[in-house]
Amino acid sequence: LGKMTLGCKRYDIPLSLPRGYNICKTNTNNQLTYTTSDGSEYVSFYLRDNIVYKIEMHRFVYNGYDANDISGKLEELVMNLYDIWGEPSYVGENVYWQFPTSKATFSYSVSTRQVDLNITSLFGPPNYQNVYCCYADIRLEKKANLFE
Description:
Strand order of the largest sheet: 1-2-3-4-8-7-6-5
Strand content: over 45%
Low-confidence stretches: none
Distance between the termini: 21 Å
Number of strands: 8
């Protein structure tokens, strides 16, 4: 997942972080979590004996008024993963990759809220518009105790 790899040692994690993930929010024996400065995105490394066995990335995809834009942004993200990992498998809406020693999954969530575009107007009826917000979750996890 970028420069982040399963089986790396705890002290290698800061060197593998994506740009912008520079605030450590969780630092325990079993987990390291880094967030972006606004806290909207994070990447978590799960450790066993100071070796990474699972990586979870929560990424911002879209925030705006056009629900159709979400599909394009998600497709772009999946195509980037396709370029790295090859063609995924699908079960319904679940997207996943199987590797000899690990598996990866991709999922997303979309939330909707209504905003009044005439909020600053003292006159006239409210003009409600849906705002869509989408986040993607990418998980990479080893299948068995292969790094020991």
